Amino acid sequence: MNDWYRPISGRFPRVSGSDQVVAVLESLRGVWDEDAVDEFDHACQSAALAVADGADDGLVLAAALHDVGHSPLLADGSRAHDVIARDWLAPRFGARVGWLAGAHVAAKRYLVATRPGYGQTLSAVSVASLACQGGAAADVEFARHPWWPDALRLRAYDDAAKQPGAPGIELDALIGIAERLAVAAGR
User: Fold this and answer.
1) Which of 76, 154, 155, 177 has an alpha carbon within 20 to 30 A of 168's alpha carbon?
2) Which of 150, 74, 75 is nearest to 106 (CA)?
3) Mean pLDDT split into 10-residue runs, the chain, 187 residues
4) Is residue 105 a part of any domain in this protein?
5) Number of Cβ atoms within 10 Å of the Cβ of 10
6) Rounded distance between C-alpha atoms, residue 113 and residue 136, angstroms
7) In this predicted structure, what is the pLDDT of residue 16?
8) pLDDT at 151
């Protein structure tokens, strides 16, 4: 699936990278994976938390788009949402952005296995999905990856970004970040 719009059978014209980000984010409105906020608000809150934490552009964009695999524009029913996110983001915004977004499930599994009490902090939906994602796992390869500390940071934003009415990043700011990263990635 090289074309971002292939899962929607060409119903939309080819658009720029920043327009793709907006289209995918907008498609998350009304998509519910958690009880408290939809995926659009979750994405914007995750990015805002990353900005507040002083994260670099790559981590901010990965935080915003880590759940794009739930988008009806991208979900294909055959791959996990974290894999879809990784595969969609990496060619557009660089390997690090794709890896970080794709690693948010591995980070949850790692934290449940290695940080006492972490599992009790997860939402009910996140606990339920953990079983489907393979359960707790102290993956040595994950912990050896040079970007794994940032994956743990992204996971913290993901876990905290479930508050109704909490502030989110402005789309214009996120578009600017996406454009800078696309240029840096040679897109």
Assistant:
1) 76
2) 150
3) 37 60 92 85 97 98 94 83 92 95 90 89 82 78 92 95 95 94 87
4) yes
5) 9
6) 5
7) 64
8) 96
Rounded to whole angstroms, the Cα distance separating 107 from 67 reads 14
With 0-12 / 13-18 / 19 or more C-beta atoms within 10 angstroms meaning exposed / middle / buried, residue 133 is middle
- The range of the structural domain enclosing residue 97 comes to 16-184
As a whole number of angstroms, the distance between CA 16 and CA 67 comes to 20
Q: How far apart are CA 75 and CA 78, in angstroms?
A: 8
pLDDT the model gives residue 155: 92
The pair of structure tokens assigned to 84 is 């879809």
Residue 155 sits in a domain of what CATH number?
1.10.3210.10
**CA-CA-CA-CA torsion sign (90, 93, 95, 99):** negative
- Are 68 and 62 in contact by the 8 Å Cβ rule? The answer is no
